[in-house]
Amino acid sequence: MSGQTILQEVLFEFHVVGSHVKVSAVCPVRNVEVIVIGPASAPRTHLKMLARRKLERRILQLQGEV
Fold this sequence. Notes:
- This protein is of the alpha+beta class and 66 residues long.
- It has one helix and three strands.
- The chain has a three-stranded antiparallel sheet.
- The radius of gyration is 12 Å and the shape is elongated.
C-alpha cells in the first residue's frame, strides 16, 4: 500500500448469531462500511483489528491505490 490511510473515526457494531459474530466497521467521514464474520469466542480486539484493516483496504481500493 503506497499511502497508508489514517482513519480518525471508525464505528463498530457487533451482532452475535449462534457461535459466530458479525462485525460491521463504518467510516462515517467517507460513508464506507465493511463486514467481517468470525467465531464468537474470538477476542473483540482481534475482530476490531481485522475489520479496521479491511475498512482501510476498502477505502484504498475506492481511492484507486490498490
